Amino acid sequence: MVVTGAGPAGPGTAQVLALDSLVRLGRARRVSSAACGRLPIPEGMAVPLGWDAVAVPARHGPLLLPRLPRIGCVYAGRTEWWWIVPRDSDVALHWPAPARYVRGALVPDAPDAPGLIHRPGDNVPYTPPIPLYLALCHVTGTAPAWSRPLSA
User: Fold this and answer.
1) Three-state SS for 78?
2) Most buried of the four, 1, 59, 109, 119, by CB within 10 Å?
């Protein structure tokens, strides 16, 4: 995308923005104002990729655990379980309903804030997103997006 205006070379010059910059700007703009805080990462854990979260109804949480090869930090509230995933784990994935992908792992203002119910044995808080996505598809009876027929 080319943006015109007063760029570093002076008025009327064009500034080129890369696609990844535009995606980041769009995502930052869409962060929910209803969120009150970010799910905390336990002390001593490394988050080199940043973190987002996938929220699922609490009834699905126990069904997902045995289907995952690795489980990162998981938080639970009365109505939802929250799985920590690397930032941008929604790129090219359409998470199946009723799951919600939450950029920035921002939790809504609620009386029962989710608490940590699982911490992995190492210092990495992430649940791998592809196995989590596939497990969610299985539990919700949804075909993964890449296996659905295309329509013209």
Assistant:
1) coil
2) 119
- Going by their DSSP bridges, the two strands 10-16 and 100-102 should be labelled as unpaired
Give, for all 152 residues of the chain, the pLDDT tens digit: 544 444 455 555 556 766 655 555 555 444 444 446 899 999 999 999 999 999 999 999 999 999 999 999 999 999 999 999 999 999 988 899 999 999 999 987 666 789 999 999 999 999 999 999 999 999 999 998 876 666 66
Kind and range of the H or E element at 139? helix 129-140
Judge whether 82 and 123 are in contact, CB under 8 Å.
Answer: no
Residue that has been written with the tokens 């939790």 in this structure? 107
Beta pairing partners, 15: 3
Residue of 63, 65, 52, 57 lying closest to 81 (CA atoms) = 57
